[in-house]
Amino acid sequence: MGNPSPHEQIVVLLGNLEDEISRISRHKVTDQNWFKGIKKASIAKSFEFCLEAYRRDTSDSAFFLAPSVRGICEDLITITYLQQLSEREQNRVTILKSKLASVEATEKQQRFFESERPWQPVVTYSNAAELKQQLTAELKSIGENKNLWKKGTPFPSVYKMAEATKLSEVYDFIYNISSDIVHFNARILLRMGWGEDPRDVSFSTGNFSSYYLNMCCTYGLLLFLYQQQNFDLPFNTDAQEIFLELSALLSYEMRWVESVTFEELNIEPPSLQDRINRRLQFDKNMSEINET
Q1: Is 252 within a domain?
Q2: Lowest mean pLDDT: which of 42-51, 163-172, 238-247, 282-291?
Q3: Structural domain count of the chain
Q4: What is the model's pLDDT at position 193?
Q5: C-alpha to C-alpha distance for 61 and 64, rounded to whole angstroms
């Protein structure tokens, strides 16, 4: 047997993290630790996404897994941004955002079921409009007092939070590559067509399934590592070492998934040797810079 591939090594390392993630994910809920709870929930979701992607024996249906990358990215940016608040404000914003989301969801739910299934009982708030007004007013007040989001708005956009937390490049790329799947996109639909003859194709999400699985693995792990770095959660020393190993393995992958590929444009991609040469030259340049 040869040496395990980077992918196989990552699978083993993720498995070695399971007990520690289980420990970190446990939470005793009180009125003073709602924000800590969402950090733990976010890191658990991110980790489980990585396990799902890396442990898959087949790339079948990976297209339908890929949109989750967007939510994980938004968790990273929002929680990182809110860490600027005091502990009391973090908890309060968490509660307010949760309640507001619930009220808004029930309004949309009610309209849908009134249209499609008017006989089905659903949860509603009799004072939804009043509740929304109260919740948004308090969110606006917190933002204005801390000067963290624009006056008169209940919460900043994800883009603004990404800029403030130096995650704008991550935001732009991850949102682009994941939004391509979530929203209508003619290029993505046409890319589903594949065949020996470019004028005689068969459409299926399976035609790009390996691409989407690689996307989930690479960017799921990248976001998981960002969360571990940015969230102040008490990982033990062994876990810290595993995170360093995961980061190194991910960094030395010779190709990360692009949003627009050479293959879909019928362009011959750079060879593996070319990629290796470029990486070696980059490392050499960085080493010389660090020595000066």
Answers
A1: yes
A2: 282-291
A3: 1
A4: 86
A5: 6
What pLDDT score does 31 carry?
A: 80
Specify whether the CB–CB gap between 171 and 158 falls below 8 A: yes
Residues 6+ apart with CB under 8 A from 238: 16, 20
Distances (CA, A) of 291 to 277, 281, 282: 21, 15, 14
Is residue 179 exposed (0-12), middle (13-18) or buried (19+ Cβ within 10 Å)? middle
Q: Which two tokens stand for residue 288?
A: 């010389």
Range of 265's domain? 6-84+148-291
Mean per-residue pLDDT, 107-124: 96
227 within a domain of the structure (yes/no): yes
Instruction: Give 146's pLDDT tier (boundaries 50, 70, 90).
Output: confident
Within-domain flag for 270 = yes
- The reported pLDDT for the residue numbered 213 is 94
72, 49 in Cβ contact below 8 A?
Answer: yes
**Is 33 among the domain residues?**
yes
Residue 25 scores a pLDDT above 80: yes
Helix axes 34-54, 87-116, angle to 10 degrees: 60
Q: Which two tokens stand for residue 131?
A: 């509740």
**Distance between CA atoms of residues 74 and 80, nearest Å:** 10
